[in-house]
Design brief:
single chain, alpha+beta, three-stranded antiparallel beta sheet, flat
Length: 121
């Protein structure tokens, strides 16, 4: 009896683990624009000013004519380490535009002042 219970529990856990299929996530795709949560493949272009209006990744994955649940156009993002800080800096620069040039000048000034006051020779 004990052996049959152990075998039954092992079979049930194996059956449950077979149901959990790993899915392709938009955050791992190279077309995903992280700071806007949009997909760079699908969208419209305004022909007057040239701006792009991309579709949200969530709606793109729900629509089977576009990417769909199985992620037809998924491509692995191999530059994820580079793109995440890039979008963070891009978003911060756009948000704090008046302060960004001042902060850059302040950093340059501070490094110059440090080099003048602490000679290496």
């Amino acid at each position: 009896m004990r052996v049959s219970l152990i075998l039954l529990s092992a079979f049930q856990t194996n059956a449950l683990s077979n149901r959990l299929v790993p899915r392709k996530l938009c955050r791992d795709c190279k077309h995903f624009i992280a700071h806007k949560e949009k997909c760079a493949i699908f969208g419209d272009t305004d022909f007057v000013n040239g701006s792009h209006d991309y579709n949200y990744a969530k709606s793109t994955r729900k629509n089977e004519d576009k990417c769909g649940e199985e992620a037809k156009y998924f491509e692995e993002n191999t530059n994820k380490i580079v793109t995440v800080p890039y979008y963070f800096i891009l978003n911060a620069a756009a948000t704090y535009w008046p302060l960004t040039p001042l902060l850059v000048l302040l950093v340059i000034y501070a490094s110059s002042l440090y080099k003048l006051t602490n000679p290496t020779n």
